[in-house]
Amino acid sequence: MIMKPIGIITDSHSGITQKQAEELGIYVLPMPFYIDGTCYYENITLSREEFFEQLDSGAEITTSQPSPADVMNLWDKALEDCEKVLYIPISSGLSGSCSTAAALAEEEPYAGRVLVVDNGRVSTPLRRSILDALELIQEGYNAEEIKQILEESRDKMVIYVGVETLEHLKRGGRITPATAALGTILNIKPVLKFDVGKLDTFKKCRGFLKVKKTMIEAMHHDLETTFKDAYEKGEVYLLAASSASKEDTDEWVKEIKEAFPDMEVLCDDLSLGVSCHIGYGGLGIGCSCRPKRPPKK
């Protein structure tokens, strides 16, 4: 059997389903969730629809790191077919699973064969990184070069997410119950910003129409400033994300295309790991720059 030189593994925080992973020729580690004390695995024993039903019913949902055994089992499977593996998980700034994986990769039999990439991403930007990695493999870069290229581009992305309800931010301890109650009365909807590995509040808006307007304005500003050089070279990918209904998602993508008529839009479902904190009805917009290629050696 001829082995592939490089295999790619990510986790379900990328929003890539098991079916999509098979189509892309990659592996996706399903992330565990605990719902009222019972462990479920994303897209394996827990569907997206079931997740939101449980979330809306008030069930206690918590995220968890994958066990080292689950990580190593998937690495072992990939290494049966691939000489080396790039493992590209959720940002180390959002989960300890990345640093745990990095420690495992230093031990035999994985040392030198499994390379853990920490480029500070989650959800749609993480999915874009997987597509970047596949392109780089096609272009002939080796595993070590791809790891370096992706990590050097960690700050070349941003995503804004508008939150429809404050309930799940309250449950996750990101805002106090008093702030949530007052915000609900005043119709306050926060816009969150994910940038270089961490999630913070960007702005608070009155109503969701203002949320969408604020996110599009922020994206315009970033393309004119932070990502100006890449944008002018046509090297920026525009991203959209959603934990809302198909109708609301389609309308959001339409609004983005009207605001940025010269750009294509890659839209994904927000990963359940993010949706757990923002709830149903969230919408996002972001961008990711095409990683810079060094000269091949």
Outline the structure in words.
The model is unreliable at about 175-185 (pLDDT under 50). The longest helix is centred in the C-terminal third of the chain and has 17 residues, at about 210-225. Helices cover about 40% and strands about 25% of the residues. Helix 11 links the parallel strand 11 (about 235-240) and strand 12 (about 265-270). A six-stranded mixed sheet has the order 10-9-8-13-11-12, with helices on both faces. Strands 2-1-6-7 form a four-stranded parallel sheet, sandwiched between helices. A three-stranded antiparallel sheet has the order 4-3-5, with no helix packed on it. The chain is globular. It is built from twelve helices and 13 strands. By secondary structure, it is α/β, with parallel strands linked by helices.
Which sequence of SSEs, written as H and E, runs from N to C? EHEEEHEHEHEHHEHHEEHHEHEHE
The overall pLDDT average reads 88
Largest sheet: 6 strands, mixed
Number of helices: 12
